[in-house]
Fold:
Amino acid sequence: MQSKTKCSTPYCRNDRVKGRTKCSKCNMRWLKEHHLDTYTFNILRCNAKRRGKIFNITLNQFRKFCKETNYLELKGKNASSASIDCKIPEKGYSYENMQILTLAENTIKENKRRKCPF
Structure:
């Protein structure tokens, strides 16, 4: 097992893994602030894995997709914000199978797929 020491970020009291200067939480915060595309790619990949979806996108393909669709500027948490949707859910995330929908449209599509009454 790796030995742990404290994170070097001021006021952070979390442990860090040996060989790193910051804890994983501070590393993710730094990545979100300085490399939003990489951070968003990592979150998308982790969520796909958690949900059991196929994920066949490289970081460069994701950057190209974001540039073409202006996704990073349009994403958010309200109903009119952009979200990434798989055109054919069974195929998972691949460059050819991704599209931008609003969060509301994406929710409606998923509810219809699951045959939810709302």
Summary: The first helix runs from residue 24 to 34. The two ends are 49 Å apart (CA to CA). The chain has five helices and six strands. The CA atoms of residues 28 and 35 lie 10 Å apart.
